[in-house]
Amino acid sequence: MQTSIDRIETHAKKIASGKHETVSPGQPARFTEASSVNDGIWQGDLGLEIIEKVPDGYTLVRRAKDADRQLVPGNTQGSKHCLDSLSGVKLYRPEKWDGESLIGPCFVLTEERTVQHPTHGAVTIPAGFTVQCRYQREFDAELRRERRNAD
């Protein structure tokens, strides 16, 4: 019979040998009901983070339309991170949501929702959470700004 320490050591050996389970790109993910503030999941370049409350400087989208389901500005395939529905969603946007900031919309859920994307795995979020969208830094845009400032 294996003890808890034996199971941990066996698992550690699997990790060290590279024979452990991995999460591959495109696999679905889910926040559990036990998730807490600061827990997050990245869906490609979109970060979804559980937060305590809607931050200051955000405005409620009063009459959300179907196009408001998209959580990343732009019209490329990479920007098509979209909520499956706006039912049970209170959507908030930063006052200056221009695609340059690393902070995006925030939403409060009263129903379970899924963030979908054509190439990344769907991320499901249970009802009762407030979620902050964050964006991965675009190195090329940052590098151009840094070069311009250095000149």
Structure write-up:
β8 (113-116) and β9 (123-125) form a beta hairpin. This protein has two helices and ten strands. Helices cover 17% and strands 28% of the residues. The longest helix has 14 residues, at 4-17. It has one domain. It is of the alpha+beta class and 151 residues long.
| Order of secondary-structure elements | HEEEEEEEEEEH
Biggest sheet features: 6 strands, antiparallel
The largest sheet has its strands arranged as: 2-3-10-7-6-4
Structural class: alpha+beta
Question: Could you give the count of β-strands?
Answer: 10
Give the N-to-C terminal Cα separation: 68 Å
Per DSSP, the total helix count is 2
Domains, number: 1
Flag low-confidence runs: none
Strand content: 25-35%
What is the arithmetic mean of pLDDT? 85
How would you describe the shape? globular
Computed CA radius of gyration, to the nearest angstrom:
19 Å
Helix share of residues? 10-25%
Keywords summarizing the entry:
single chain; 151 residues; alpha+beta; six-stranded antiparallel β-sheet; 2 helices; 10 strands; 28% strand; globular
Give me the secondary-structure topology.
Elements: H1 4-17, E1 29-30, E2 40-43, E3 46-51, E4 58-60, E5 82-83, E6 89-94, E7 103-109, E8 113-116, E9 123-125, E10 130-135, H2 139-150
Parallel strand pairs: 1-9
Antiparallel strand pairs: 2-3, 3-10, 4-6, 5-8, 6-7, 7-10, 8-9
